[in-house]
UniProtKB/TrEMBL annotation, chains A, B:
Keywords: Ligase, Tricarboxylic acid cycle. PANTHER family: BLL6376 PROTEIN (PTHR42793:SF4), COA BINDING DOMAIN CONTAINING PROTEIN (PTHR42793). It comes from the Bacteria. GO terms for biological process: tricarboxylic acid cycle. The keyword Transport does not apply. The lineage of its organism: Bacteria, Pseudomonadati, Pseudomonadota, Alphaproteobacteria, Acetobacterales. SUPFAM superfamilies: Glutathione synthetase ATP-binding domain-like, NAD(P)-binding Rossmann-fold domains, Succinyl-CoA synthetase domains. This is Acetate--CoA ligase family protein. The keyword Signal does not apply. Residues 7-102 form the CoA-binding domain. In the N-terminal section; belongs to the acetate CoA ligase alpha subunit family. GO terms for molecular function: acetate-CoA ligase (ADP-forming) activity; ATP binding. It comes from Siccirubricoccus deserti.
Amino acid sequence: MHPLEKLFRPRSVAVIGASGDPGKLGGRTLFHLKELGYRGRIFPINTSGKEVQGLPSWRSIADLPEVPDSALVLLPAPAVAQALEDCAAKGILHVQVLSSGFAEEGGEGVVMQERVVEIIRRTGMRITGPNCLGSISPPDGYFGTFSSLLATAKPGPGKVGIATQSGAYGSHIYAVAGFRGIGISRAIATGNEADIDVAAAIDYLAEDPGTAVICASLEGCRDGDGLRRALLKAAAARKPVIIMKVGSTEVGAAAAATHTGSLAGEDRIIDAVFRECGAWRVSSIEELLDVAQLCAIAPLPPSSGVGILSVSGGIGVLMADACIEAGLDVPPMPPEVLAQIREIQPVAGGRNPVDTTAQLGGRMHVFEDISQAMMQGAQLGAIIFYLAHIGRNVARFPPLEEALTALRRSFPDRLVVAVMTSVEEVRQRLNVLGVPVFEDPTRAVRAILGAARIRVLQAAAAAPPAIGPGPPLDLSATNEAAAKALLAGAGLSVLPERVCLTAAEAAEAATALGFPVALKILSDDIPHKTEVGGVMLNLADVTAVAQGFDEIMRRARAAKPAARLDGVLVAPMVTDGVETIIGVQRDPVFGPMVMFGLGGVSVELFGDVAFASAPLTPERADALINSVHSARLLAGWRGGPALDREALVEALCRVSKFAARHRDAIDVVEINPFLVRARGAVVLDALIAPRRA
Amino acid sequence: MHPLEKLFRPRSVAVIGASGDPGKLGGRTLFHLKELGYRGRIFPINTSGKEVQGLPSWRSIADLPEVPDSALVLLPAPAVAQALEDCAAKGILHVQVLSSGFAEEGGEGVVMQERVVEIIRRTGMRITGPNCLGSISPPDGYFGTFSSLLATAKPGPGKVGIATQSGAYGSHIYAVAGFRGIGISRAIATGNEADIDVAAAIDYLAEDPGTAVICASLEGCRDGDGLRRALLKAAAARKPVIIMKVGSTEVGAAAAATHTGSLAGEDRIIDAVFRECGAWRVSSIEELLDVAQLCAIAPLPPSSGVGILSVSGGIGVLMADACIEAGLDVPPMPPEVLAQIREIQPVAGGRNPVDTTAQLGGRMHVFEDISQAMMQGAQLGAIIFYLAHIGRNVARFPPLEEALTALRRSFPDRLVVAVMTSVEEVRQRLNVLGVPVFEDPTRAVRAILGAARIRVLQAAAAAPPAIGPGPPLDLSATNEAAAKALLAGAGLSVLPERVCLTAAEAAEAATALGFPVALKILSDDIPHKTEVGGVMLNLADVTAVAQGFDEIMRRARAAKPAARLDGVLVAPMVTDGVETIIGVQRDPVFGPMVMFGLGGVSVELFGDVAFASAPLTPERADALINSVHSARLLAGWRGGPALDREALVEALCRVSKFAARHRDAIDVVEINPFLVRARGAVVLDALIAPRRA
């Protein structure tokens, strides 16, 4: 049994702070338990000790005749700690604290929440909240929440599990799911997350046999590895996870920080973590539920190829555009398939989308027959039908139902989606067949995209490889030469460079290395050398190098009089290749994260970089490179040679391993530029920032 | 009276091909006219000449006792031409041909459509179709269509006019509009567009007093200037135009071309035309109707600043993210406003979004009071409220209604939007107040974006300035030197360059111009010089130039033995600036269109270019530059100097005028690179392609 089973699906529950007044939160929660179909035992706890809402009640937890599986606490905040102590004493170890007035209000509330945390640590109790909406399990008739939504709409039972931090956010999702007929297995809102967070709830849902699809919403995240583990567990169980994370913009992140007290962080880092762990991120509640609904009904499409059959040419084109823009394929049908199609429906047009025209005269088998031809003719993962208003007419529906039944039977692993206006009955009958129905063509495509991507992401989902700590590093010096020495030790190529302390040494080094050369100031105190004029390029002879040495030292002294100068680095000029940037930064939540991009305007103007968790495998490194748009420059640009991608992959793996091994010692590794050449790749400049105390 | 008034709103209508069988198109159309509230006179025309569906009928148009305003033709295609002749003879000059079997089927159908066009030309008759769905005017109870939608859902009357090319596309929009309670003024589907196209329909709707908002959908466009005029008329009337154009991807464009026989064209060109003419392009039917619904109910927001008030912190953040990503502003409230907010609702958090928390205890005036403070404290164009499930509870609604009524009264020109789950009654009551209601937070933001942008676009909407033809050009030579001479004549700066016929001449020219120089092959037959190795850069002395001359001539002869070579252009090397690309291409539908972008990866890798109609005004040129992402490089890059933007604007205007003046003689002007320098800007290479015969 999962350790949270009793919390999500208690067979008996105490309501601490139960009230006879359904206007009060403790009254409303009791009312929901009593009236909405819960078959477990309910124990109201109330200081009066008389019956509450017709149920026998108890003065205290201690008085209860048995140990209930769970307790819901609805007392004023100052009384919560004692209630938790009482629960622990009684042996109730699964408690939901619905009361507010804790950390979210600051001041005294923070202190009270700390006390809750202390009780959890001491007793091993598991709690949700404080300041949470509670949880529901519609298949059990269990609605352990005061949500006012239930006054007008009770979520129905089904296979979609929902975990959100915010209660209002969650109840909005429950409500819309209900309007759309999406059944819920369990739903929980975790509130202030003194113990159980969204990740822990996902972990439960991933194991819960009643849940097939998981929807989640995060505002912040404190335990990156916990989130990774939960998402990977769901991916391994092949339960699609559709997830939202608010705070993606600066304004949003600032607001989320104010609101939850948790760091939003670099949005693309959480994006990368979701992707690596097989979760599909969406940006609206509508999309969340569209994808969830599709996944709950139908198989995930086995390829990104989509066949489009439309009774309207225009809407066929609209859907083809939407597919292509989303990154799905709309492969044109080969001539032999087109010939078959024309035989089935002579007026049909197009190679995919196929326009059947509306001239069908009730011959619904046309859809099945053409689909059969298309499915056999191309690697399609999904077929979309645009069927206009057929779904509004129940009388005209049976032949369509028959055609789709046959099609589903022939291709049980492919996704078949109907787009049309329809009445509820038709929609439900198609859902039973495993055919999701959408009214809006663009939303249908967006949902198919989600399902197709989830299949690919889950198949590739994996944690970053485990890696032990490396031997202690000497980080007493952090200038460029020291950083390069460390990276060379990690197996990266660096140039034959020399640290010089005098102009004469520099001239001699340059002569030995070969002209032209670059000179760079060396100082632990000057991490950004160009800012002080500490870099000179393309020095062509001995005189230029000697003068350059003096000039660079002079500039550094002028700009940073207090800096300790370690001399000047003399390096050969190498420019034959493409400049890339490789960085690893230690994210406070997700640990060391690799950043990769190409130098110049791609990064600085178009923000064309991508992130991945460290350490990288070669496959992940390759995917990281591919997810950078400008990486196509590596294949050769304007007739230039293809560059050594293998060397780049190897370097990414080595840097990422180095940073992961030394995560306790290093905050940042930045190699900029990292020059990828036709053969090999080399560190041109590097910076290592030791971990701040 | 608009020339199409009788077509859209006939006071009497003949149904040619009326049938007693409502299963047939001619029977269904008559049924709709008879049964759905039309108050005009209906004249069924039927070969039997007996009564049809209980109405007296006539054998022929000629027999009619009066001249009806319009006729609907539902005969088989081969009989249509004679029916049109009969209509013309009777004096009916507004006819809708609903019959199919014309150009859309190819072969004989094309010939029959040509005959229809000939009749239109000869008689001055105005027709929609053939192969169209007809039109409706719900306020008149007029449903002149066979659409099967009407069997289950009749669009209600309202202020939204709809013009689509495709009938199925149109009827999908009518259906969804109906489900959402969006009332329609007129709707038309133009089918094969032998005469009336979507632009002509928009032109009518722009003048129609019953229409306040226009929705349109195009698959192709044949008359670019007609579309411009219609959109500008709507913009001048301050009627929002929300428009879709399918075929935005290559696959979609190919499908649209198959399907409609019309060219999809470069999608960004039609994008530019829409924008210039004040129309707002959307990519889904859902978005089309969301924006239309908002515009039909509420004022367009006077600024892009949005205030967000939410009972849920999480959903406030979600909406803030959506605003920022869409390009709306979410300005933080100044401290004095925050102080006011805390006084009104002490537990409120955030600077915008403002989290009121759900602890309101029915105090709905909180929303009004906080909004008042926010509206006065910042330049907000709109306020969004997230109100959870308040709208599900009619009993709790009156205090909210009161608060919003007061708010609308205080700020009649600002947009107030409610996001919540709600019952229909609450939604309708808020709509009456001018408050649009959305269930999905992200959709609400997207609709606000549309409304805000429409206001800005309509205010700036203008046709490209009229410009007469220029004096005839000598286009007998088109090599680089000739192209530059023409551009110099148009007022652009070119370098002092020399055309040289021998190596000695080249060496002499280089000496006179100053080293280093560039050499470029000159030939009308070699428009792409680099492809034949016809460009050499950075030649530093007389020897290099002389050898370079011979080498270039040799390469050109080897690559293109048949080309006539006009010598070699010797030009000074100039590199101090940012390379841009200025192009003008004559679009077959929209005439000369300017393209602008920055050289290198910005264009080639990121497709960072923008289009505008020629000729440009300085304002439009400036906006064109701003719409290119990488244009920020012009302000100075990595400490470099700011570049001469004014010179660029002037050059764009001059090139665009030149191309527009000579649109009958020139297909393409391309200046690549056009170097923008710290002072001035200069043509480095140019190509002019005369108009193909």
